[in-house]
Amino acid sequence: MPIAEHIITLQFFSRIDDGASMRALIFDTETTGRVEPDLIEAAWLAVSDLKTLEVEEQFVQRYRPDKPIEMGAMAVHHILEEELLDCPSARTFTLPEDTGYLVGHSIDYDWGVIGKPDVKRICTYAMTRKLWPEVDSHSQSALMFHFSKDRKKTRDNLKNAHSALADVKFCRILLNKVILAVRPSSWEDLWEFSERARIPETMPFGKHKGVKIIDLPDDYRKWALNNLTDMDFYLRKALES
């Protein structure tokens, strides 16, 4: 059954109402794998106050997929198919109706797994890469070590890093680091920063891989826009601008 509970959290800011009527969900999934993934576990922390990230509700639930779990995925999350036989179907998952923003590390993957609902996505992976480019890895676990004041404790906590509920709790810590750095005035403001952070500054592939997009030859830029029809949305924005 779903778990819902209130959690007392440290308040990093005094409470300020930013006027948002929709909640943000810090969200994560575990799935059957990378190939057309089915949901097998979903977890979220509901927060509305941007300044404190006080958790209003916590949810975690496992689901029964319609396809086998890939061995690679099983090796990561350690969830077995036989443990899911009595769980609700993955097709029954829905977000709460008052969800305005979905927050996560590389959130587009999890958003896609649940059917790409009509909510705005805030990507902590993109924002941390933008804010701390000097870090050699921007995986969630690597960033937890980067910000840690007690790495032995962090190492012990990260042993559960591929549980969806553990991951959203870690993501909340990273989200707080981003908020302290950016000081957004609202969830919309934070979403806009996330959108800007997603736009690449260098070409990620091809003969100009690694070249700053502002330095690309005009003829190549035009060719890419006209011929690469399956181009990433944010790369297209970078080339167009």
UniProtKB/TrEMBL annotation:
A GO BP entry: DNA metabolic process
SMART domains for this protein: EXOIII
GO terms assigned for molecular function: exonuclease activity; nucleic acid binding
CDD domains hit by this protein: DEDDh
Domain Exonuclease: 23-184
SUPFAM superfamilies tied to this protein: Ribonuclease H-like
InterPro entries for the chain: QSregVF_b, Ribonucl_H, RNaseH-like_sf, RNaseH_sf
Protein's recorded name: Exodeoxyribonuclease X
Organism: Acidithiobacillus thiooxidans ATCC 19377
Lineage: Bacteria, Pseudomonadati, Pseudomonadota, Acidithiobacillia, Acidithiobacillales
